[in-house]
Design a protein that fits this description.
This protein has 469 residues and is an alpha/beta fold. The protein folds into 3 domains: 167 residues, Glycogen Phosphorylase B (Rossmann fold); 63 residues, no CATH class; 210 residues, Glycogen Phosphorylase B (Rossmann fold). The chain has 17 helices and 15 strands. The strands form 3 sheets. Strands 3-2-1-4-5-6-7 form a 7-stranded parallel β-sheet. Strands 10-9-8-13-14-15 form a 6-stranded parallel β-sheet. A two-stranded antiparallel ribbon has the order 11-12. This is UDP-glycosyltransferase.
Length: 469
């Protein structure tokens, strides 16, 4: 029994799924910890879940912090490009804005600072500048006062990529409180999305640990703790599984049909995603004419608020059933759309009651592999592609896809004319990525995905009891 006070910090809503809706809190309390949620979001943890929370009411970071964070990202990607002789890092950048005099002037200023600081030493200078800016804010002073009152034994930040977390974590460090952060997503490290500096870092796998040491030489090996991610733990929770009849009844599905899940992407990743859904619908229609009895479950990207799929869904409403993720919008920005605990159960059952999933480069490949279900990745251009629209093929060149143990870790559809035959081969049991997909899953998420929460608490216990991992 550790009997320590642990402050679980939500700078934004992305960590809710991992650290509020799983058994993470329950495991920590079983070890004797007092868990308080330090909540910087609009989500009401006390009201919704009955959790002890302390709200951060002061939201304003320094107005120059986002600008310098963007500069830092560009520099880190430039350094990686040169250091590793690999142009892929340039594709992670968003284009500069030259619309109007004000935007042009700002862009020129940003580019000037990038050019003067494109080195390892330059990265440190910019990081120090960001920290100085955030230490000057009312938010920093507000968070520091809260920490002095709470007196936690450790602050655990649930994501490394939020600007809202910088000042709060600096306040903790300045008070001598140990800090630990969790690297949120499988693609975040090579994309230069490490905005916070903490005493320790929880990473998904040995692969992610290697990446952290490669891209961030100021981080030492003893600061990195391989834990896995709680993201996939609900897939192993059998209490979430509904019977086929119950699931179909709740979502107006036909128990006699076999379903293929189409997992939608955000507009940036796959701007022509609706046409891949249309291709799937056309392939399923042909297969049904051959005697199959298939339907499609369309699960949109939770933060996609566009209506670009509507026409396709309407045209194929006899086959496509829309099952929206159970997320809740609490604002107009993408990071103000929050997951709910109910969606963990929904995703578990969509995986369990579908034959396979199809999408563009989504990590849902791992959600479905956890249920021994195959994944088809679309990897061909749409005829609607034109200048100014991003080609989805770029996604598969990203660094995180190099972690695949072989090309069989996913089923790649490189021609829409092959989609029908590939689906048929999957349904007949003649084509599957599951064996190689499981190897990929272990490379990315670690050897024991079901034990991630336990391992994070092992790390926390060790840090707070010895203050030396």
């Amino acid at each position: 029994m550790t009997n320590k006070k642990i402050l679980v910090f939500f700078p934004d809503g992305v960590g809710l799924r991992n650290f509020a809706f799983t058994k993470f809190k329950e495991i920590g309390e079983q070890r004797g910890n007092q868990i308080i949620y330090w909540n910087n979001t609009a989500f009401q943890l006390k009201e919704e879940l009955g959790f002890e929370e302390i709200k951060i009411r002061t939201q304003r970071i320094h107005p120059l912090t986002p600008l310098f964070c963007r500069i830092r990202k560009h520099i880190e990607l430039n350094v990686a490009t040169k250091k590793l002789a690999d142009a892929v890092y340039q594709t992670y950048k968003f284009p500069f804005n030259y619309n109007g005099i004000k935007n042009t002037q700002m862009t020129l200023f940003i580019r000037l600072l990038i050019s003067f600081n494109s080195s390892e030493k330059g990265i440190l200078r910019i990081r120090k500048r960001i920290n100085k800016l955030e230490r000057s804010t009312a938010k920093y002073r507000y968070c520091k006062a809260q920490l002095q009152e709470i007196k936690p034994d450790l602050v655990f930040c649930t994501t490394q990529r939020a600007t809202q977390s910088i000042g709060a974590l600096l306040a903790a460090q300045d008070l001598g409180i140990p800090t630990l952060t969790f690297v949120y997503s499988w693609d975040n490290v090579p994309k230069a999305m490490q905005l916070v500096e903490t005493d320790y870092y929880c990473v998904w796998s040995d692969l992610m640990k290697k990446e952290m040491l490669q891209y961030y030489p100021f981080i030492k090996e003893n600061q990195l703790i391989v834990t896995g991610t709680p993201q996939f733990e609900p897939h192993y929770d059998t209490s979430l599984l509904q019977s086929r009849a119950e699931f179909c009844s709740e979502y107006n599905l036909d128990t006699g049909k076999k379903y293929i899940c189409f997992s939608g992407d955000d507009e940036t990743t796959s701007p022509l995603d609706q046409y891949y859904l249309e291709d799937l619908a056309n392939a399923v229609r042909v297969l049904n004419s051959k005697g199959y009895n298939l339907g499609i479950i369309y699960r949109k990207c939770p933060v996609d608020t566009t209506h670009r799929y509507d026409e396709v869904i309407e045209a194929h409403k006899d086959m496509i059933t829309v099952i929206d993720p159970l997320w809740k919008a609490m604002g107009k920005q993408w990071n103000e759309v929050f997951p709910t605990k109910a969606d963990l159960k929904l995703l578990h059952n969509v995986c369990a009651h579908s034959e396979l999933v199809t999408n563009v480069c989504s990590s849902t490949v791992f959600d479905f592999v956890a249920h021994n279900k195959p994944c088809i990745y679309y990897n061909y251009e749409q005829p609607q592609l034109k200048k100014g629209i991003r080609d989805i093929g770029q996604n598969y060149n990203y660094v995180h896809f190099r972690s695949m143990p072989s090309s069989e870790a996913a089923i790649f559809c490189t021609d829409k004319n092959h989609l029908e035959s590939q689906i048929e081969a999957v349904l007949k049991g003649n084509l599957s990525n599951v064996p190689e997909g499981k190897k990929w899953y272990k490379i990315v998420a670690g050897e024991t995905p079901i034990q991630a929460s336990e391992k994070i608490w092992n790390a926390i216990d060790k840090i707070v009891n010895q203050n030396n991992y």
